[in-house]
Amino acid sequence: MNILDKIIVDKKREVILKKSIIPVSQLEASVFFEKKTISLSDNLRNSTSGIIAEHKRRSPSKAEINYSFSVEEVTKGYENAGACGISVLTDGKYFGGSLDDLLLARATVNIPLLRKEFIVDEYQILEAKAHGADLILLIAAVLTREEIKTLSEFAKSLGLEVLLEVHNQEELEKSIMPTLDMIGVNNRNLKTFEVSLDFSKQLAAQIPNDFVKVSESGISSIEAINELKPFGYKGFLIGENFMKTDNAGKAATEFISKL
After folding, report:
1. Ranges for the Indole-3-glycerol phosphate synthase domain (predicted)?
2. Helix-strand-coil percent breakdown of the chain, rounded to 5?
3. Residue 216: active-site member
4. Domain containing 63: what range?
């Protein structure tokens, strides 16, 4: 069993447990539930930098990235830096995140927030909305076409945008549907953790222009972004590169100003 399979097994257990404790009615009573969402896809289309900055404490491939920042410091720094949106990891076991991180981010900034999570159930989309997210991530590698359709339709019914993540041609072909806003190509193979920008380059031409193209993972330089822009990419998700510094906001500011 690879790491991705393990995460999904744990996630399904976690969702069953949470459903037994927090009823849907409680999520729907959240102050954020009626809040109008902010569009990341619009921000990316109209941006010159296209940076989606990430709050990420650790990951399975890098045990610890940074535990010294508060969510407020990081997200405020990203907003001040001119990021188009912020990705907030909410998985606890493997990434050291939580839904509280999303809530604190929402209380701090007024730019689009992505709930970065392994979504396997509509309940998690309700959680995302209740904690102030503007969009969700769906990962094609762990979902069937039918699941992608059901989950993306449900997200849209709540006013949330959908970023779908793919890693290869097969995942892309099974996933394309009108209920997606953005298609992200993960440059990191989630099964082997190998990273290469070639994944983004190879898939670019296969992604219809109706979707905003996003390149994710392994982007650590201005050169990488300049290399990907001619392929039609409008969004660039960067986490580790900013989080591993002493000041994520400052690192993002310097990076974006160079762009």
Report:
1. 4-254
2. 45, 15, 40
3. yes
4. 3-257
